[in-house]
Amino acid sequence: MNIAIIGTGYVGLVTGACFAEVGNNVICMDIDKTKINKLKKGIIPIYEPGLEEIVKKNLSSGRLKFTTELDYAVENSDIIFLCLPTPSKKDGNADLSILFSVVKNIAKVLREITIRSDLKVKKFLVSKSTVPVGTADKIKEMIDRELKKFGDKVEVNIASNPEFLKEGNAVQDFMFPDRVVIGVSNGEAEMVLRELYEPFVRTGAPILVMDTRSAEMVKYAANAFLATRISFMNEIANLCERLGADVEKVRIAIGYDNRIGPKFLFPGVGWGGSCFPKDVKALIKMGEENGLNLKIVNSVYEVNEKQKRIIVEKIKKHFGKDLKDKKIALWGLSFKPKTDDMREAPSITIINELLKLGVKIVAFDPVAIPNAKKIFKDKIKYAKNQYDALKNADALVLVTEWQEFREPDFNYMQKLMRTPVIFDGRNIYNPERVKKIGFTYYGIGR
Ligand SMILES: NC(=O)c1ccc[n+]([C@@H]2O[C@H](COP(=O)([O-])OP(=O)(O)OC[C@H]3O[C@@H](n4cnc5c(N)ncnc54)[C@H](O)[C@@H]3O)[C@@H](O)[C@H]2O)c1
Q: What are residue 58's DSSP bridge partners?
């Protein structure tokens, strides 16, 4: 099939590369010229395991193309995927201005093609962006309004196809999804999208077909539920700490309950990233605008805002109020391991709070330093490696649980640090073990 991807970011690039990988012709479009120029040379602008290999392979086979021209992408494709950003507005609502302006431009291109063409113009326009319930209907209204004077000469079928990939495991998630969700209003769109996804569900994952409003809601409900599990465990962790229980033992024990399961129960310094915060806020807003106060979802957000500051509270308690000129090493900047994405990362809140207290910060992350530099500039120092960050440090704060931080050389660390104190924001170290070596250890809820 001939596919256009509009918006070649984390979702668009993975989607485009994976569709090309199974034999489709894909044109990835973006307004970012630098990004597209890099991609044309096979240079991947983001860190995502396994992505470079399939981009390069499909680029050289000619199945994957990159462009900054919307009309070229639209003209040469049958299915157009919108993978555009839908960030939070100040009031918490999803900002759809980019998405709607692109839809308008697509309608313009289709108008021009229709005027030029003797044949009927037919396209499928599919939103992969996370969008508030009812957006597909609004897209349809816009398209119909723009193209109504052409009658049957042009047909645009609107669908919703929310994306569930996880950054850091995105290629694997796309190639082997747990399920594919398709929101359509007719059988033809269903058939086309089923065919497109057939190669990805050969191991038995279901393709779930529903109306566009339900499909749009699935994405928000899934993200809010996952965020709820984490915030719930963070509350339990904070209570464990007060009562002398160990949340790690509690987490494992409740995870064995089949009704609960072990995933997304890890307490820590709060959730972040490009999706959970904005999607939770947008869901709250959807409730408000429809006369419903979503109490649980509101609390999930509130609990998380507090949790992002929990390490700072622990640091203040340990060192006393005067933190001026204390030197703190920070391991991990990205919002989770295996990505360079810093959007709404808990490290941002932690660093900003510590800077306000006059703390000097030296940070290390395996891949996110270039993105961190855009945020913090020279307000913090960046270390060459994880041990370099520890030289003369008064404490280490572990923020992101990258694999290479899990089994460090504790004896060497102790020699490098001024005082051997660890604030383990992800509970990855064994408290007894590190205490025996000579560290003062603080975890979350233990
Ligand atoms: N990142 C994730 O893990 C993830 C997972 C599932 C769903 N989503 C959703 O997918 C959507 C995209 O997210 P993302 O993380 O890929 O965002 P992103 O910011 O990484 O990518 C968006 C891309 O769109 C481009 N763009 C902006 N304006 C444009 C325009 N007018 N025309 C063409 N391109 C334009 C940007 O340059 C950027 O490359 C969002 O709605 C997000 O909520 C993201």
A: none
Return the pLDDT at 187: 95
Residue 321 confidence (pLDDT) = 81
300, 276 Cβ separation under 8 angstroms:
no
407 contact partners, CB below 8 Å, separation of at least 6: none
335 C-alpha to ligand 1 centroid (Å) = 17
Which residues, judged by CB distance below 6 Å to any ligand atom, belong to the binding site of ligand 1?
6-12, 29-32, 35, 83-86, 98, 102, 129-130, 163, 165, 167, 274-275
Residue 427 · residue 269 · CB < 8 Å: no
Which SS3 state, helix, strand or coil, does residue 109 take? helix
Q: Please provide the DSSP assignment of 11-59 as one string.
A: HHHHHHHHHHHTT-EEEEE-S-HHHHHHHHTT--SS--TTHHHHHHHHH
| Distance, CA of 106 to CA of 116 (rounded, Å) | 15
Phi, psi of 424 (to 5 degrees): -95, 95
Task: Return the pLDDT at 208.
Answer: 98
Instruction: State the pLDDT at residue 403.
Output: 97
pLDDT of residue 194: 98
Question: What distance in angstroms lies between residue 7's CA and the mean position of ligand 1's atoms?
Answer: 6
Spatial contact of 207 and 197, defined as CB atoms under 8 Å apart = yes
Instruction: Please give the backbone phi and psi of residue 50, each rounded to the nearest 5 degrees, phi first.
Output: 85, -10
Q: Take atom 24 of ligand 1 and give the residue whose Cα is closest.
A: 7
Domains of the chain plus CATH, in order, are 2-210 (3.40.50.720), 220-306 (1.10.1040.10), 308-442 (3.40.50.720)
User: Within a 10 A sphere around the Cβ of 402, how many other Cβ atoms?
Assistant: 23
Angstrom distance (rounded) from CA 163 to CA 19: 14
**Residues with pLDDT less than 70, the chain:** none
Percent of the chain with pLDDT over 90: 99
